[in-house]
């Protein structure tokens, strides 16, 4: 497998966690979203992904973009360890939380949007994340055990940790979100979350390395 990734991309991080949890080794092709005006806009990369976004995973003779589509494929083809519970109600909760983050929070504060916000980008990102986290905190109070849904790591957790990292980068006050904070701390103790961390990637700049 070949993963096109950017060390700081939260969408790429989700996929790196899934690959680590499932023990899938891969070659990494860094795509720097800032360098050269954004390497994702090159003709070469556009041929890989017309949306000009990371991550992209080449695996089993197919090319997949969109982090959740990639994770679903890995789940369908390499089901151990399971990232979606077998119980339909728990499975729906996992998907709900994942979608809440992937559709309702992250796109509003990603690079392409922030570029358009100019000087207000930090304030914009903080507001988008805070409003999303207010809802997420309430949801997790009903669904969580050790992790987002019960005591098993799921797709929801793969989305949560990178989003909390974004929140910290934009200096969002995490005080009002004790459940999110607790779950994030527990997940960051797991090896798959450590090895996939933005501070430990081949393309991580020296000053940001762990």
UniProtKB/TrEMBL annotation:
<keyword id="KW-0413">Isomerase</keyword>
<dbReference type="InterPro" id="IPR005955">
    <property type="entry name" value="GST_Zeta"/>
</dbReference>
<feature type="domain" description="GST N-terminal">
    <location>
        <begin position="1"/>
        <end position="82"/>
    </location>
</feature>
<dbReference type="GO" id="GO:0016034">
    <property type="term" value="F:maleylacetoacetate isomerase activity"/>
</dbReference>
<comment type="pathway">
    <text>Amino-acid degradation; L-phenylalanine degradation; acetoacetate and fumarate from L-phenylalanine: step 5/6.</text>
</comment>
<dbReference type="InterPro" id="IPR034330">
    <property type="entry name" value="GST_Zeta_C"/>
</dbReference>
<dbReference type="InterPro" id="IPR004046">
    <property type="entry name" value="GST_C"/>
</dbReference>
<dbReference type="GO" id="GO:0006559">
    <property type="term" value="P:L-phenylalanine catabolic process"/>
</dbReference>
<dbReference type="InterPro" id="IPR010987">
    <property type="entry name" value="Glutathione-S-Trfase_C-like"/>
</dbReference>
<keyword id="KW-0808">Transferase</keyword>
<dbReference type="GO" id="GO:0006749">
    <property type="term" value="P:glutathione metabolic process"/>
</dbReference>
<dbReference type="Pfam" id="PF13409">
    <property type="entry name" value="GST_N_2"/>
</dbReference>
<dbReference type="Pfam" id="PF14497">
    <property type="entry name" value="GST_C_3"/>
</dbReference>
<dbReference type="InterPro" id="IPR036282">
    <property type="entry name" value="Glutathione-S-Trfase_C_sf"/>
</dbReference>
<dbReference type="GO" id="GO:0005739">
    <property type="term" value="C:mitochondrion"/>
</dbReference>
<comment type="similarity">
    <text>Belongs to the GST superfamily. Zeta family.</text>
</comment>
<dbReference type="InterPro" id="IPR004045">
    <property type="entry name" value="Glutathione_S-Trfase_N"/>
</dbReference>
<keyword id="KW-0963">Cytoplasm</keyword>
<dbReference type="InterPro" id="IPR036249">
    <property type="entry name" value="Thioredoxin-like_sf"/>
</dbReference>
<keyword id="KW-0828">Tyrosine catabolism</keyword>
<dbReference type="InterPro" id="IPR034333">
    <property type="entry name" value="GST_Zeta_N"/>
</dbReference>
<feature type="domain" description="GST C-terminal">
    <location>
        <begin position="87"/>
        <end position="206"/>
    </location>
</feature>
<dbReference type="InterPro" id="IPR040079">
    <property type="entry name" value="Glutathione_S-Trfase"/>
</dbReference>
<protein>
    <recommendedName>
        <fullName>Maleylacetoacetate isomerase</fullName>
        <ecNumber>2.5.1.18</ecNumber>
        <ecNumber>5.2.1.2</ecNumber>
    </recommendedName>
</protein>
<dbReference type="GO" id="GO:0006572">
    <property type="term" value="P:L-tyrosine catabolic process"/>
</dbReference>
<keyword id="KW-0585">Phenylalanine catabolism</keyword>
<dbReference type="GO" id="GO:0004364">
    <property type="term" value="F:glutathione transferase activity"/>
</dbReference>
């Amino acid at each position: 497998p070949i993963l096109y990734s950017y060390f700081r991309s939260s969408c790429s991080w989700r996929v790196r966690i899934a690959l680590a949890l499932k023990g899938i080794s891969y070659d990494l092709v860094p795509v720097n979203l800032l360098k050269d005006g954004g390497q994702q806009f090159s003709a070469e990369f556009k041929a890989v992904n017309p949306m000009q976004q990371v991550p992209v995973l080449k695996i089993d003779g197919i090319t997949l973009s969109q982090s959740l589509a990639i994770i679903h494929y890995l789940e369908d083809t390499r089901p151990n360890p399971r990232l979606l519970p077998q119980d339909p109600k728990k499975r729906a909760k996992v998907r709900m939380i994942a979608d809440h983050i992937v559709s309702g929070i992250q796109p509003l504060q990603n690079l392409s949007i922030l570029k358009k916000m100019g000087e207000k980008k930090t304030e914009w990102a903080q507001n988008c994340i805070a409003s999303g986290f207010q809802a997420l905190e309430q949801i997790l109070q009903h669904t969580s055990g050790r992790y987002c849904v019960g005591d098993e790591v799921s797709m929801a957790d793969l989305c949560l940790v990178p989003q909390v990292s974004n929140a910290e980068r934009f200096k969002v006050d995490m005080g009002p979100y004790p459940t999110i904070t607790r779950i994030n701390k527990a997940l960051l103790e797991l090896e798959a979350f450590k090895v996939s961390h933005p501070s430990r990637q081949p393309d991580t700049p020296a000053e940001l390395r762990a």
